[in-house]
From TrEMBL:
<dbReference type="GO" id="GO:0030313">
    <property type="term" value="C:cell envelope"/>
</dbReference>
<dbReference type="Pfam" id="PF00384">
    <property type="entry name" value="Molybdopterin"/>
</dbReference>
<dbReference type="GO" id="GO:0046872">
    <property type="term" value="F:metal ion binding"/>
</dbReference>
<keyword id="KW-0411">Iron-sulfur</keyword>
<dbReference type="GO" id="GO:0043546">
    <property type="term" value="F:molybdopterin cofactor binding"/>
</dbReference>
<keyword id="KW-0408">Iron</keyword>
<dbReference type="InterPro" id="IPR006656">
    <property type="entry name" value="Mopterin_OxRdtase"/>
</dbReference>
<dbReference type="GO" id="GO:0016491">
    <property type="term" value="F:oxidoreductase activity"/>
</dbReference>
<keyword id="KW-0004">4Fe-4S</keyword>
<dbReference type="Pfam" id="PF04879">
    <property type="entry name" value="Molybdop_Fe4S4"/>
</dbReference>
<keyword id="KW-0479">Metal-binding</keyword>
<feature type="domain" description="4Fe-4S Mo/W bis-MGD-type">
    <location>
        <begin position="14"/>
        <end position="70"/>
    </location>
</feature>
<dbReference type="Pfam" id="PF01568">
    <property type="entry name" value="Molydop_binding"/>
</dbReference>
<keyword id="KW-0560">Oxidoreductase</keyword>
<comment type="similarity">
    <text>Belongs to the prokaryotic molybdopterin-containing oxidoreductase family.</text>
</comment>
<dbReference type="InterPro" id="IPR009010">
    <property type="entry name" value="Asp_de-COase-like_dom_sf"/>
</dbReference>
<dbReference type="GO" id="GO:0051539">
    <property type="term" value="F:4 iron, 4 sulfur cluster binding"/>
</dbReference>
Length: 956
């Protein structure tokens, strides 16, 4: 019998192109295999530094994202009421003329009448610069309701942060703590890293109310109560201090533990650093019993004890303040155990494990290096304790201080950028705080004096009027939310509707589903988008929205600008924005068109007429005559976004892409534009990477080799060391202002708030919803949170045909003990109530959740008709959002439901009650379906025609 002939190495397609994935924030390298001009297969690129060939379900399902039935096909102008989904298709010339007409009138009248807010677009290096050219201060980005606590908490403490800008030392860590980490961000690099840790036998502890994904493979799960992570961190700090297990040498060498803080209660200098005539911070030199410069190398600095300065003022070292605060019995394990839901014995044990790993299992790498004082070191000593944190700790009204608490814990262990610890990824660390301040005034040509987003150094940098009132539509950089480095996207619609602080003319959004899953209190938000004034005109006069898909928010736009899929356009993953560096090298990347969108039939079968929003924005800017977008003759400066990527320079020699610069492409990081730059990226798999010298990979904040390298690369303006800040003088400047000191003081209604929350050392306080709802533990005894699933990202993927096969609906998950406590059985319909409303959903038992917490998957619930899902799709019938229960303002109604320092949306402060209700056919609330054309219900057998074509080809 003849054996069949088997092809043991089939070729996935007849052509392959390498680019960058956009199915989450990982920015993995992918190979897109084509057959007969259609996608046959997507696989990871083994040569890519981010994922090294690993690819997740989302990345593989990019095929269905590109061929989604929800894709928009042409520009559209609204013809029915907002929210109805009734549009007429128009041509691009008309669409761009309308947009330029609306925006041109605004710029001539008052640029701040444009509010430009962008979602998870990863192109803020363009969009923020464009807003600056337009002259509006009203620009913000996704991070304001997603990750600004993480960014600001880190950048004001370490000059770097968790999230996508730092990583554990996967090669040397012996103990890793994951705090509030879901599986959606940076997932493939984390999976690779966790694999290395498991192989080496390192211990992994996950701190999260829910045990999913990474937590499922952790050695220990700490099921913490939401919003108490900072309290847990302080208990660990308390124990380390009590046991005297602190790396004081590290704290003096690299942090401000020995800097003297003035004690002058009620005085204008109280809590500020003592400084010399050159404004250099001082320490107390025990060798001479006198003050000395804190950065001197020939001193013996005191870290405890009060001293009297030559001018008679009293002062104490920072470490003295740290010890005084966190040795307080209120932070002892027994004192915090009940609130955190963690046994006191567990807290004490983990503190001992941290100390033992850091000090008894210290590692030493035989790598010579030179510090910023010129001292040679024969080896690099490391504390092999690493931490990583994400939204679970940041999305609370106490999240900024929780982030700082974790960094304080790291610093006390000497576990920041040492072998085995948390490591910076270039271009971090940055000076503390980073030098770029938010734009506030316009130049004579109408351009803002700086980009709209930035970092406040003191009260003088706030974007407020002469009375101290907010100038920005989102109230970012105001006395209510001073350090809102990413803006406050979650407040713009309410404030635009209310005309607070001014009426805007046009709200322009890109990839921001603010009409559904990206809004708090969704029903009320929809009301603001559709509300009219006494004259019958919409209170938000015009809405321009750009998206690739028929999301819920598309229905509320007046003008829709259809974007491409990520396989049809150029993108830059820029070092000026959200880079893909790792701790050992700087890297950036591009996406480039695998397809011309004009060749890709749309859901209707007609050819789509769509354009990448970045190119559209450049076109509109040129039509408006924005200074940076036209040349000396008034002609467009850039042909499109690809041309912008090549020729635009943020500073001489510095563009959005760092690879292959210079006219001949021989330079990196800094150099003249190279006309062939994009071709070089494409030939290299879509990315560029530059290795950090081996001697410069640790102690980056004080490593002469790294700081000189970073200065050459343009990451730092100087090679000065970056001193890590246990104690933040920036925070104390705001507290002094609240006490009436200085030229810039808050209005009376904000003074107590600023004085309370701008503590220079990390603090913990009850999340606002828990603190401000009367009798909250009785009325709303449960915390409710969402988890971002590893297999979906935001709302984009709950419409993806393949990913929907993993989950097409969600439940409210609760512990079986919780079910018994409230009389709920598995699968029962329940009413879930918060202080603002009620939803009705189905419950599902799961033992992977802390018993005082309920949870669900994020963004799976859809509005019927949106995303062109079938009218009875499970996402719209049984799926739901917790957003309906989350208020956008505090229970008292005085501020946004947000962190008082940064304005970060407090998504995870939600408190609820549950009770059984009668069975239902659908979740509640339900909204009127959006009148988008639904997808064909017939089964989708993608690839069958490709298999047939291949089979016929083989036979021939």
């Amino acid at each position: 019998m003849r054996e069949p002939e088997l092809d043991l190495s089939p070729t996935p397609g007849d052509e392959v192109r390498t680019t960058t994935c956009y199915m989450c924030a990982c920015r993995c390298g992918i190979k897109v295999w084509l057959q007969d001009g259609k996608i046959r297969y997507i696989q990871g690129n083994p040569a890519h530094p981010v994922n090294q060939g690993v690819l997740c379900a989302k990345g593989s399902a990019g095929i269905m994202q590109h061929y989604s039935p929800a894709r928009l096909e042409k520009p559209m102008l609204r013809v029915g009421p907002r929210g109805s989904g009734e549009f007429r298709e128009i041509e691009w010339d008309e669409a761009l003329s309308i947009a330029a007409g609306w925006l041109g009138d605004i710029r001539a009248r008052d640029p701040n009448e444009l509010a430009f807010f962008t979602g998870r677009d990863q192109s803020q290096a363009l969009t923020g610069w464009w807003a600056q050219q337009f002259g509006t201060i009203n620009y913000a980005a996704h991070g304001g309701f997603c990750s600004v606590n993480m960014a600001a908490g880190g950048l004001y403490t370490l000059g770097g942060s968790f999230w996508e800008f730092g990583e554990p030392d996967w090669e040397h860590t012996k103990l890793l703590m994951l705090w509030g980490v879901a599986e959606d961000h940076d997932s493939n690099p984390i999976k690779l890293g966790l694999g290395k840790l498991k192989t080496r036998g390192a211990k992994i502890i996950t701190v999260n109310p829910v045990r999913t994904g990474y937590g499922a493979i952790a050695d220990e799960w700490i099921g913490i109560r939401p919003g108490t992570d900072g309290l847990f961190a302080f208990a660990l700090i308390h124990e380390l201090l009590r046991m005297d297990r602190i790396d004081l040498d590290y704290l003096v060498r690299y942090a401000n533990a020995h800097w003297l803080v003035v004690r002058n209660e009620g005085g204008a200098d109280d809590g500020l650093f003592a400084r010399d005539e050159d404004d250099a911070p001082l320490c107390w030199n025990r060798a001479t019993n006198a003050p000395a410069r804190a950065d001197a190398i020939d001193v013996q600095p005191a870290v405890v004890g009060e001293v009297t300065l030559p001018d008679g003022r009293r002062a104490v070292p920072v470490f003295q303040l740290v010890a005084e605060r966190y040795l307080d019995p209120q932070y002892a394990p027994d004192a915090v155990s009940e609130r955190c839901g963690i046994p006191a014995a567990t807290i004490r044990r983990i503190a001992r494990e941290l100390a033992d790993t850091a000090f008894e299992q210290a590692i030493e790498l035989p790598i010579k290096w030179t510090d910023t004082h010129g001292r040679m070191h024969a080896t690099m000593t490391g504390r092999p304790v690493a931490m990583h944190a994400m939204r679970g700790i940041s999305a609370h009204s106490n999240g900024f201080h929780t982030c700082r608490a974790l960094h304080l814990l790291q610093l006390l262990l000497g576990a920041v950028d040492t072998p085995g610890s948390f490591r910076y990824q270039p271009p971090f660390p940055k000076p503390i705080p980073p030098p770029n301040r938010p734009g506030r005034t316009r130049q004579p040509n109408g351009v803002l004096d700086a980009a709209p987003l930035g970092f406040v150094h003191g009260p003088e940098d706030l974007v407020v009027d002469e009375h101290g009132h907010p100038r920005r539509i989102d109230h970012a950089f105001s006395w209510a939310y001073p350090l809102s480095a990413h803006g406050m996207m979650h407040t713009v619609i309410r404030n635009a509707w209310a005309g607070d602080p001014q009426r805007i003319d046009t709200l322009m959004m890109f990839m921001a589903n603010m009409g559904w899953n990206s809004s708090m209190n969704t029903a009320e938000t929809i009301g603001w988008l559709t509300d009219k004034d006494e004259a019958g005109e919409y209170r938000i006069p015009r809405i321009i929205y750009a998206d690739a898909y028929a999301s819920e928010t598309v229905a509320y736009a007046d003008l829709v600008l259809p974007d491409t899929t990520y396989l049809e356009r150029f993108d830059a993953i820029s070092l000026l924005d959200r880079p893909i560096s790792d701790a050992d090298g700087a890297a950036d990347a591009i996406r480039h068109p695998v397809f011309d969108p004009a060749t890709q039939p749309g859901p209707s079968g007609a050819q789509r007429d769509v354009r990448g929003f970045q190119s559209v924005l450049i076109d509109i800017g040129a039509r408006l005559g924005l200074p940076g977008l036209i040349d000396e003759t008034g002609a467009p400066r850039y042909r499109d976004y690809a041309d912008f990527l090549i020729r635009h320079e943020r500073a001489p020699g510095v563009g959005l892409l760092a690879g292959w610069r210079g006219e001949d492409g021989t330079l990196e990081a800094k150099g003249a534009p190279n006309p062939q730059q994009l071709d070089r990226y494409i030939a290299n798999g879509g990315f560029w990477r530059s290795e950090i010298p081996e001697t410069a990979r640790y102690y980056k904040m004080a490593n002469r080799g790294y700081l000189d390298w970073a200065q050459r690369m343009g990451f730092l303006a100087s090679g000065e060391p970056i001193v890590l800040q246990l104690y933040s003088e920036t925070m104390q400047k705001f507290r002094l202002a609240a006490q009436g000191h200085g030229a810039h003081v808050p209005p009376p209604e904000h003074r107590e708030r600023v004085a309370t929350y701008f503590d220079p050392l990390p603090i913990w306080y009850e999340p606002f919803e828990s603190a401000q709802v009367d009798d909250v533990d009785t009325r709303f005894p449960l915390s409710a949170i969402t988890q971002r699933p590893m297999f979906m990202y935001h709302a984009w993927h709950a419409q993806n045909t393949w990913l929907r096969q993993i989950a097409a609906r969600n439940w409210l998950y609760l512990h079986p003990d919780t079910g018994a406590r409230f009389g709920v059985v598995d699968g029962q319909w329940i009413a879930v109530r918060s202080h603002i409303g009620e939803i009705r959903v189905q419950a599902k038992f799961a033992s992977n959740v802390q018993p005082d917490t309920v949870w669900t998957w994020n963004a799976i619930g859809k509005r019927r008709g949106a995303w062109r899902l079938a009218k009875d799709a499970p996402e719209g019938r049984e799926g739901f959002l917790l957003n309906h229960l989350i208020s956008d303002i505090t229970p008292r109604g005085d501020y946004a439901n947000a962190d008082p320092v940064t304005g970060q949306a407090a998504w995870f402060d939600l408190r609820v009650s549950i009770e059984p209700v009668a069975a239902a056919d659908a979740s509640a609330p339900q909204f009127a379906p959006i009148a988008f054309t639904g997808a064909d219900n017939k089964p989708l057998r993608y690839g069958a025609d490709l298999r047939r074509a291949r089979a016929l080809g083989d036979k021939s």
